[in-house]
Every structure is written in structure tokens, then in C-alpha cells.
Design a protein that fits this description.
Elements: E1 32-36, H1 40-52, E2 56-60, H2 63-69, E3 76-81, H3 89-98, E4 105-109, H4 114-122, E5 127-130, H5 135-149, H6 157-168, H7 172-182, H8 187-194, H9 198-212, H10 217-232
Domain Response regulatory: 32-146
Biased composition (Basic residues): 1-15
Keywords: DNA-binding, Phosphoprotein, Transcription, Transcription regulation, Two-component regulatory system
Length: 233
């Protein structure tokens, strides 16, 4: 039934939250993106997209080029492809971790390298992105790294509550599979652990992504890492 004339009420649209410090270039503190990607076309397009966001970008083709160039601490984030000619991204990340490298590291991972990227996060990497890298995802990751580097207070209560609700929708088996994913295991390795087929594991993972409302595996892992970190506080 339609409401009576004169009694129609309209909800006021919610005001968009004010731009964050990172989203306001004039207020943003110095922050450089160090981009290491061996594919020239991908590197050029990502650099151009980041520069459109008023970010300083220093780009490199190899891990060794970056390692030789970075000599004094400059506020920023290292965006690092896992597979690189010569020294791999994982090898560079491990080397930098031993030297107490002060910048957050965001790994770029192909689908087959996701377990490796997860393990890199467990060893100190800040985040990872899946290929093909979407510009919005990259900018969001840089923004998170900015907040982390400058210790910007970010209210994550709503996001954590949503993650908890999603986790509660998982079955016991789905939660078990998710725990293995977060541990950095591939679908084949999870199948061996649970003595089921890889196809069964992939079906579980598809349902997990749906219930968790995850855009991709990187988003799923990030939600779980953030939730586990909050639980430990």
C-alpha cells in the first residue's frame, strides 16, 4: 500500500565521511611509493596511476636496483613483485627484514604465488595484492601503508564486526579450510592435510569467499589478519 499523501518521508542521505589525511594531498605528509616490477608496461601504468594521486613514485625493474638505491630512510612503502629476475621479491623482503627495514612492504602476487605471499606476510610483509593489480586496490593498499607508517588512528570497529559476523556463518569444515589458507597453504596442500580432493577444497574456498564477502583472496587474508590482530590486543 502506498503511503498517504503528505506523509511521505525522505531519509536524508548519509554524509560522506571527510577525506582522510592520505586522501587529502595538501595535508598528506611526505610519502614515497617504491615500486619494483620487472614488466615495463605494468610498471609504467601503475606509476602513472599513482602519480595521478599526487604520490611520489620511484620505480625499479629489479630487486637489486632498489636495494642499491635505497640508502637513507625516506617515508614510504615498498610495493614489490614476488617474481623478479635475479633476486626475487621474497628474497629481497627476507633480506630487508633481517636489516630491520623501516617501511611497510606490499607484495604483488600471481594466483599461483598467493601461498608464498601469505607466508611473506607472516614473516613481516604488510600486505599483498593479486595480479592483475587494480589501481583502486593499489591506492587503497598505499593508503593503509601510509596510516601504518605514520600510526594514524583508524576506526576499524565496523569492519571487525562485519568480519566476525561473516566468520560465524562458516561451517566447521569451512573454518578449518580458511585456517589453512591463512597459514599459507595451497589448495593442494590443504587437500592433503584434510585427506579430501583438491576440487573439494576449491569448492569450500568458493563458499568461504562468498560468505566472507571477499573480493579476492588478498582481501580475505587481510580481513583475517586484521581480525586476528585485534583479538590478540
Amino acid at each position: 500500500m502506498l503511503p498517504k499523501k503528505g506523509r511521505i518521508t525522505r531519509r536524508k542521505p548519509k554524509k560522506a565521511p571527510p577525506p582522510t589525511e592520505f586522501e587529502s594531498p595538501r595535508k598528506r605528509r611526505d610519502f614515497t611509493v617504491f615500486l619494483v616490477e620487472d614488466d615495463q608496461g605494468i610498471r609504467a601504468s601503475l606509476k602513472e596511476a599513482l602519480e595521478e594521486e599526487k604520490l611520489q613514485v620511484n620505480d625499479y625493474m629489479t630487486a637489486m636496483e632498489f636495494y642499491r638505491d635505497y640508502r637513507e630512510v625516506v617515508p614510504g612503502v615498498l610495493v614489490l613483485d614476488i617474481r623478479l629476475p635475479g633476486m626475487s621479491g621474497i628474497e629481497l623482503q627476507e633480506k630487508l627484514a633481517e636489516e630491520e627495514f623501516p617501511l611497510p612492504v606490499v607484495m604483488i602476487s600471481g594466483h599461483a604465488d598467493v601461498p608464498m605471499a601469505v607466508r611473506a606476510m607472516k614473516n613481516g610483509a604488510f600486505d599483498f595484492l593479486c595480479k592483475p593489480v587494480k589501481v583502486d586496490d593499489l591506492v587503497a593498499a598505499v593508503g593503509r601503508a601510509y596510516d601504518h607508517y605514520y600510526d594514524v588512528d583508524v576506526d576499524m570497529d565496523d569492519e571487525l564486526d562485519a568480519t566476525e559476523d561473516s566468520l560465524n556463518r562458516l561451517t566447521g569444515r569451512e573454518r578449518e579450510v580458511l585456517d589453512h589458507v591463512v597459514d599459507g597453504l595451497s589448495s593442494r596442500e590443504i587437500a592433503e592435510e584434510l585427506t579430501v580432493s583438491t576440487k573439494t577444497v576449491e569448492a569450500h574456498r568458493a563458499r568461504i569467499n562468498d560468505k566472507m564477502r571477499a573480493d579476492n583472496v588478498a582481501h580475505l587474508i587481510r580481513m583475517c589478519f586484521n581480525f586476528n590482530a585485534a583479538e590478540e590486543v
